[in-house]
Amino acid sequence: MPIVHITRRERFSAAHKLSRPEWSLEKNYATFGKCSNPNWHGHNYVLWVTVAGAPDPETSFVTDLSELSRLIKVHVIDHLDHKNLDLDVPFMKGRYSSTENLAVAIWEQLEAPVKGLGVVLKTVKVEETENNYVEYHGE
Amino acid sequence: MPIVHITRRERFSAAHKLSRPEWSLEKNYATFGKCSNPNWHGHNYVLWVTVAGAPDPETSFVTDLSELSRLIKVHVIDHLDHKNLDLDVPFMKGRYSSTENLAVAIWEQLEAPVKGLGVVLKTVKVEETENNYVEYHGE
Amino acid sequence: MPIVHITRRERFSAAHKLSRPEWSLEKNYATFGKCSNPNWHGHNYVLWVTVAGAPDPETSFVTDLSELSRLIKVHVIDHLDHKNLDLDVPFMKGRYSSTENLAVAIWEQLEAPVKGLGVVLKTVKVEETENNYVEYHGE
Amino acid sequence: MPIVHITRRERFSAAHKLSRPEWSLEKNYATFGKCSNPNWHGHNYVLWVTVAGAPDPETSFVTDLSELSRLIKVHVIDHLDHKNLDLDVPFMKGRYSSTENLAVAIWEQLEAPVKGLGVVLKTVKVEETENNYVEYHGE
Amino acid sequence: MPIVHITRRERFSAAHKLSRPEWSLEKNYATFGKCSNPNWHGHNYVLWVTVAGAPDPETSFVTDLSELSRLIKVHVIDHLDHKNLDLDVPFMKGRYSSTENLAVAIWEQLEAPVKGLGVVLKTVKVEETENNYVEYHGE
Amino acid sequence: MPIVHITRRERFSAAHKLSRPEWSLEKNYATFGKCSNPNWHGHNYVLWVTVAGAPDPETSFVTDLSELSRLIKVHVIDHLDHKNLDLDVPFMKGRYSSTENLAVAIWEQLEAPVKGLGVVLKTVKVEETENNYVEYHGE
Question: ipTM of this model?
Answer without folding.
Answer: 0.96
